[in-house]
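One such shown below:

_____
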Amino acid sequence: MRIDRLPISVLRSRLVPDRWDIVAIALVFGLLIYLGEAAHGLTQPLAGLEATPISLNPWKLIDYSARSALRMLIAMIASLIFTFTYATLAAKSRRAEVLLVPMLDILQSVPILGFISVTVVFFLSLTPGRIAGAEFAAIFAIFTSQAWNMAFSFYQSLRSVPEELDEVARGFRLGPWMRFWRLEVPFAMPALIWNMMMSMSGGWFFVVASEAISVGHTTLTLPGIGSYIALAIEQRNLAAIGWAIAAMFVVILIYDQLLFRPLIASADWFTLEHEAGLMPTRTWMLTMLRRSRVLRLMRRGFTALMHVASRWGQALRSQQRARGSMAPSAAAGWADVLWYAAITVLCLAGLWKMTMFVHSGVSAAEMGHVVLLGLATLARVVILIALASLIWVPVGVAIGLRPRVTHIVQPIAQFLAAFPANLFFPVVVSGIVAWRLNPNIWLSPLMILGTQWYILFNVIVGASSISPDLRHVAENLHIRGWLWWSRIALPAVFPFYLTGAITASGGSWNAAIVAELASWGKEKLVATGIGAYIAEATSAGDARRTVLGIVVMSLFVVVLNRLFWRPLYAQAERRFRIA
């Protein structure tokens, strides 16, 4: 039908933008304008940072908050790309898993704060004399706090896809590309969304460290909430810290409304079973995304591109099938041998190189001392993870079984998870000094403050995935108390708990570098541990001792994961998989 023959009422409804179109246009163009201004700022010279020092004026927090929020958003996008590629390869390729999973164990525990100056030099060399290098270094530091948790969650989900869904995918003859987007991503989405929230919240800890960077005798301070908090701690300005907390709360609330609430509501599409009588989650942002005709046109264009990519992938697979199999099983066996041999040689060469580098300036006695420091930190990590599990597993199960409570608790837990441990330093350090407490004991909780939420968030996801039918059967059979926990609740949340506990453990090792050496003004407290060793070596610019501390910490994490966490992970895949 020609458009000039349509009734006036229909023309008006089609051509005149409604309120959702206006809101969508305002948000999209506002974001594009701000991104354009931010991109223009990347080309500015580094000297401009020194010319405009950080101010503790509360009104400056409006601009600082926008800059920090943008850095975290870019890091989140990079983390999603990393998750969809790295975790998928680790879950689907047996050869790649041997290398990628241990690397992920190390990467999530290696203290990026210990060698952030090295990464800054690298990124600054990419854009000599420009602010872009410092911005990239800050975003990379935030990325390291987000990517590992999301990758572990997605990896665990890919390894536990129900068998009946596998059979359906094979029955429909879905190719790898369609299987990934139609089966695996939707199945992993509920857990991934909650871990995205946790990663975004955990990024605030690194925002504080990444926006004030020291390179040699020069300090590069990027405008943002993190640099504002660092200056407030240095000047012991409690009022400024209060304003920074308020600004963080506003940014978290905006992210919750514009990003995470719609994602949680859309995750209802991907749940395997729905509880009868439970109304779907509604958010104004999701309503706008569904009703705006502007965004509908953009979605259609994206869908068309995905369709073209899918057809291209199918054609490529058809050509490969036509050529036939080029590698017999014997060749595949030799390929495995060569692959594992290459990995072994690279690992031995890397260890030898690091040993020679460290040994040239560090005695064998000091190496043994660092191992003992690692054992001290290990004891803290084990005790703290055990205590956090005893507290948050029952709480997470109680929240996850009540969807309405989940929607209330989610933004509160997200804000608490985002609260940087640095802001507790004034209270903790002052209390330890005033009451003459032992730093080895009372500095330890700072290690788990930011990482305990990984356990809570993952347990909530696991509890919410318990089948309503299974819960109703338990009620009808009057299964209560320990029998209910041992037969229903704990087996259901166990795989999700392991994902949270592994990430919380690695994050606690990472947080030790800040928690074991805390300062407030001129007061400085040091706890015995490898985190304090790395922090002091980094502050002194001692590269050999910094590398020694990082290597020993990484070895502790790998051995712990291989001897303890990985066997539990394998057991969870065998015994507690949804079938």
